[in-house]
Write the structure tokens for this entry.
Amino acid sequence: MTVSIDIAGLRPERLAVVPSPLAELGMALHALSEPGHHPGLQGWVTSVTARLDSHLADRMCEADFLWRTTFSDLFLPFAGIPGGSALPGATLAEELDQLDKLTDEQFVDAALEFTCALPYEMPAPDVLGDAGLRRRALELAAARGPQQLRFSERLLADPPRIRSWLRQFLQDCDAAFFAEAWSRLRHQLAADARHKTDLLRHKGLTEALTAVSPAVSVDETAGRITIDKLRLGHTVIKDSSLLLVPTSLGWPHLQVLDRHGWQPVLHYPVGSPGLAPPPSVDELTLRMTALSHPVRMQLCRNLARSTYTTSELVQIHGMTAPEISRHLSVLKKAGLITTRRRGRYVLHQLDVTSVARLGSDFLEALLR
């Protein structure tokens, strides 16, 4: 499963790498709501939570589904401005002004994304003017709880009021904790943006895009970017730009905005932990499938303790040599065992590090 972006005809000047204070505020709210996704931010989350005003904390819960369970496109409003060439603002105030430029229909469409009520990659229907769509959106919101239902009712009844509420809430978050964080983070993000821009100018499109994440690949001949994610999606650049927006608070999330009619955006983490690149979704599926067979699980139990030859495993498990060889081949293809030769013997052993990382690799695949 992948998200692909058709970049045929994309000119280098239509690709920009620009930090976004509003997107970073969105990631800050997500980290505060889901600290388990961001163990590296535990100290910061604890510090902010300890000094957070109780009234602001209560307001943070009113619409936390915009940044907890999804990362709403409302935090990337520049992508929705007509013309397909707007860039993030230099300040939070400028980006809040960009948020005000979205039509009520765009705002409501993006805000209701958490209900999965509206198609994401097709022209958005007019939920404000279609009574049937309104009822469906409210039904889906109700299924997610009374808090989401109340928000959706207010949103559909009076979009300007919710827009005003959200702007004031974000401004209060800026005053309470984000302005201080942004004063530190913006330098790292600006440096990363300069680095990616230099790669684009001196080494080309592929080098710049693949530097964003190991999950991003480029086929310039086919004119396509592919992002390895556990969902399907496709968008076409056409006459718009492609924006790369770095985030310091976002690891391990790699967000792809491919909403119909909006500029495509890759919102990617910088400064991630220095681990080996995670396996692709296909590799992860192969490994989990390999371990799902009871015989291969028993083989792994032996191979985790010591090295074994095929003939030794045949004796232990009472199976034929071809059967054991087939199971070993599946495990080896999945990258879960290693083999080495000692004289005329071939020894097999479990790659304990790869198996130990399966849980974190799976979680990272889900979150990115």
Observations:
- The chain has 15 helices and ten strands.
- The first helix runs from residue 21 to 33.
- The two ends are 13 Å apart (CA to CA).
- The first strand starts at residue 2 and ends at 6.
